[in-house]
Automatic annotation (TrEMBL):
Record's keyword terms, sorted: Aminotransferase, Pyridoxal phosphate, Transferase
Record PANTHER family: ASPARTATE AMINOTRANSFERASE
Record family assignment: Belongs to the class-I pyridoxal-phosphate-dependent aminotransferase family.
Protein name listed in UniProt: Aminotransferase
Gene3D superfamilies, A to Z: Aspartate Aminotransferase, domain 1, Type I PLP-dependent aspartate aminotransferase-like (Major domain)
Record flagged with keyword ATP-binding: no
EC number: 2.6.1.-
Aminotransferase class I/classII large domain sequence ranges: 32-387
Pfam families for the chain: Aminotran_1_2
Cofactor(s) named in the record: pyridoxal 5'-phosphate
Length: 400
């Protein structure tokens, strides 16, 4: 018998970390790797944010803060939610966490009872199902069709809801597809949710600002305020401000859930890093030029990459509405044999072939609950993206 708890034994290590590790190992072994695995901005944290962190250190903000985060940061988050999302939260309805991932994990930890069902639209962010499993819940995967831009539709949601349904996890823009829900999409989902008053809803808004649609995104809570008493909003500064290493995220929601998250945090991690909180405050309150420029850069990479992928035999993809990934359909390369005689039975074979024969690292769609695809990142230079797609073209040029 293992001495590791069974609920943890069932948790798989993150496949994106595994893919990144595999690419790094090949690179260390001297192989040239075109890395399209990255899940973080390729920019440095903006200077004014770094300077705010240095100033906080010099001011002595190097001690414990309130478990739920500094009053200044929680107020700044409340202001952000009001300004950008038209949602009113009191700072005591907000908890600052060690990244958005930690916020999601704690929200599930304080609410999921063994056997509770957590609805997860697929393609999904790799961590959701395993977080649910770690909390002894049951992930229920809801497939979302490429023809519907990989978005969850109302009928699929309704058909999946049962008396055991505890949560719906909604991520827009979505990792890995970039699927971005419109007001109408959210309205249709809200109408279903209104019929199931015990279901909690978590919106993972971490890619909110990495959006290529015209005009601001609407929030589910603003579309249907009646959902607010059971809505937990998760967001953070990682992707928007190129601050993945600083580990600051947050959750906003009803006081009982946020309060329980704060209690859990007070007995586990305590506060998120004090210096990082000062940096996050500067990010939320400071000049937003960086965000606009980063999005323009991602957007031009997206346009170029989508065009090139669609010109590559065996591959196709839709232009994502947000985030910095392409979810590439590789069904045209599956069940075929490469020029070198390698049979590609599924997306995992495709991904291993690209890595081993061409040195291109991407992540198989199976990791996101959706075989037949792979995810490639555009959070890297256009030269790397172009080179990666060129090698894909070579890889699939003579499929039999
Ligand atoms: N949610 C989604 C959909 C993500 O893709 C990621 C990071 O990859 C996170 C949350 C985690 O963000 P953080 O770095 O703030 O923990």
């Amino acid at each position: 018998p293992s001495r590791i708890a069974s609920r943890i034994l069932r948790v798989k290590p993150s496949p994106s970390s595994a893919a990144a590790d595999r690419a790094a190992a090949l690179r260390r072994a001297g192989k040239k790797i075109v890395n399209l695995v990255v899940g973080e901005p390729d920019f440095d944290t903006p200077r004014h944010i770094r300077e705010a962190a240095c100033a906080a250190i010099e001011r002595g903000e190097t001690r414990y803060t309130q478990n739920a985060g500094t009053p200044a940061l929680r107020q700044a988050i409340a202001d952000k939610l009001s300004r950008e999302n038209a949602l009113r939260y009191d700072p005591k309805q907000i908890v600052v966490t060690c990244g958005a991932k930690h916020a999601i994990f704690n929200a599930l930890s304080v609410t999921v009872e063994p056997g509770d069902e957590v609805l997860i639209p697929a393609p999904y962010w790799v961590s959701y199902p395993d977080m649910v499993i770690a909390c002894e819940g049951t992930p229920v995967v809801l497939p979302c069709a490429e023809s519907n831009d990989f978005k969850l539709d109302a009928a699929t949601l309704r058909a999946a809801l049962t008396p055991r349904s505890r949560w719906l996890l909604l991520n827009s823009p979505t990792n890995p597809t970039g699927a971005t829900y419109t007001r109408e999409d959210l309205r249709a989902l809200a109408d279903v949710l209104l019929d199931f008053p015990d279901v909690l809803v978590l919106t993972d808004d971490i890619y909110e600002h990495i959006s290529y649609t015209d005009g601001p995104l609407v929030h589910l809570g603003a579309v249907e305020p009646a959902l607010l008493p059971r809505l937990v909003i998760v967001n953070g500064v990682s992707k928007t401000y190129a601050m993945t290493g600083w580990r600051i995220g947050y959750a906003a929601g009803p006081e009982d859930i946020i309060g329980a998250m704060e209690t859990l945090q007070s007995q586990s991690t305590s506060n998120a890093c004090s210096v990082s909180q000062a940096a996050a405050l500067a990010a939320l309150e400071g000049d937003q030029t960086f965000v606009r420029e980063a999005v323009l850069t991602y957007r031009s990479r997206r346009d170029r990459a989508v065009e090139r992928i669609n010109a590559t035999p065996g591959l196709s993809c839709r232009a994502p509405g947000g985030a910095f990934y392409l979810f590439v359909n590789c069904q045209g390369a599956i069940d075929r044999t490469t020029a070198g005689g390698r049979f590609l039975a599924n997306d995992t074979d495709v991904v291993m072939y690209l890595l081993e024969e061409k040195g291109v690292a991407v992540i198989a769609g199976a990791a996101y609950g959706t075989p037949g695809y792979f995810r490639m990142s555009i959070a890297t230079s256009i030269d790397v993206i172009e080179e990666g797609i060129r090698l894909m073209g070579e890889a699939f040029s003579d499929l039999r």
